[in-house]
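A reminder from the course coordinator: this example appears on the midterm review sheet, so study it carefully.

Given structure:
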């Protein structure tokens, strides 16, 4: 009668969404100020003024039937030209406007890229901890997700990657700055990854792709984010404006295909085909144009840095263990017991909503999304301390 797999996916909901819905219910019960909701990566820093101004300008100057009408399936030509010109000038990679596909954020970009590549028997490698929806996109396309763990500091583990990448691998998905650890893959690491992928592609006899998932590129606290296309030719970049411009609800981003990839024309055609098949054609027209005028700009990242510093300093001084994040807006904190789900449940009793790490492909951690107001961060500190004291008391 209906597709059971889809029913299951719809009913199961992601752990993050589950906790987010619980938070909304709890806020209605005890008041929003009394719940410390660190569940979801919804940007808290306001959308920048220049974005608002550009929306107003477009509304005033562009005829409504043009502004709100369909664009080409792959995006408005002038927008695709602006994105390619930006990549050329900013990163020195001659990506063609012909190889830019405007999409509904990184989620659609990933689903399209994976579907565009996937053939029967394929595997996609995710590097843990990873954004849990990768599994949905990969398995939805009919492929298997293979997990490669990182080292104890969440840096790339090249022995693990060597083991995970094999003759069935179609692509490796790389997310830097990372959700949930905040780790940024360095130029040296990217170089090594590029060499490994090249060797593995030779062994396989066909290209293994790198899918770079980059919704957090601009959210960094000092470390440089190297551009993957400069290190590996068969790269498909999935970019989103959700976090950099605080536009998560507007669903806008793009796919860029490296000019150095094998068969770029066929690859781009497959991206268009996957976009068509999945129904992701003609990304939101107004926001395509808004973003074309905002390339390379970002919201006030300093606000996130302050949140990170307050929370990281407090948690580590209290006794929690956490690797300092270099970017994005998450802390990945070691749970105070091996079972992260049980720990998250106990945290709930202190009205702290922390996402258990299991669906990120790692056990024993929780993700704390610090893209919340400063007031929430500050009010939550005693609850984190009480939670820690509770565990200390249990050990006595
Ligand atoms: N990839 C990662 C690593 C994310 O954290 C997210 C959202 O949180 C996405 C992709 C999807 O983002 P978008 O809003 O651009 O679809």
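Designed residues:
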């Amino acid at each position: 009668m209906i597709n059971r797999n889809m029913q299951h996916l719809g009913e199961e909901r992601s752990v993050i969404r589950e906790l987010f819905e619980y938070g909304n219910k709890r806020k209605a019960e005890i008041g929003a100020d009394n719940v410390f909701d660190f569940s979801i990566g919804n940007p808290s820093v306001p959308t920048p003024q220049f974005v608002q101004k550009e929306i107003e300008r477009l509304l005033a100057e562009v005829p409504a039937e043009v502004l709100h009408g369909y664009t080409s399936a792959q995006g408005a030509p002038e927008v695709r030209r602006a994105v390619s010109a930006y990549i050329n000038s900013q990163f020195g990679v001659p990506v063609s406007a012909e190889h830019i596909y405007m999409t509904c954020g990184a989620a659609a970009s990933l689903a399209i890229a994976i579907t565009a590549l996937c053939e029967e028997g394929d595997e996609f490698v995710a590097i843990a901890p990873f954004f849990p929806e990768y599994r949905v996109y990969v398995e939805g396309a009919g492929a298997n997700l293979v997990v490669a763990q990182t080292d104890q500091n969440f840096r790339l583990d090249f022995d693990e990657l060597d083991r995970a990448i094999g003759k069935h691998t179609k692509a490796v998905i790389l997310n830097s700055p990372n959700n949930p650890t905040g780790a940024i893959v360095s130029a040296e690491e990217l170089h090594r990854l590029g060499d490994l992928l090249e060797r593995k592609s030779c062994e396989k006899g066909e290209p293994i792709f790198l899918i770079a998932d980059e919704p957090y590129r601009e959210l960094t606290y000092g470390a440089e984010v190297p551009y993957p296309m400069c290190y590996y030719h068969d790269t498909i970049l999935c970019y989103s404006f959700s976090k950099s411009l605080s536009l998560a609800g507007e669903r806008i981003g793009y796919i860029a295909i490296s000019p150095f990839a094998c068969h770029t024309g066929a690859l781009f055609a497959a991206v268009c085909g996957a976009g068509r098949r999945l129904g992701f054609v003609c990304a939101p027209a107004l926001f395509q144009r808004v973003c074309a005028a905002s390339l390379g700009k970002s919201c006030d990242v300093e606000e996130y840095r302050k949140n990170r510093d307050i929370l990281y300093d407090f948690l580590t001084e209290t006794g929690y263990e956490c690797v300092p994040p270099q970017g994005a807006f998450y802390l990945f904190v070691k749970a105070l017991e091996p079972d992260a789900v049980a720990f998250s449940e106990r945290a709930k009793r202190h009205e702290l909503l922390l996402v258990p790490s299991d669906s990120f492909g790692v056990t024993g951690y929780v993700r704390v999304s610090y893209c919340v107001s400063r007031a929430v961060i500050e009010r939550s500190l005693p609850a984190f301390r009480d939670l820690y004291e509770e565990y200390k008391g249990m050990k006595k």
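Residues 41, 105-107, 131, 175, 179, 213, 215, 240, 242, 248, 253 surround pyridoxal-5'-phosphate (CB under 6 Å). Residues 374-395 form the longest helix (22 residues).
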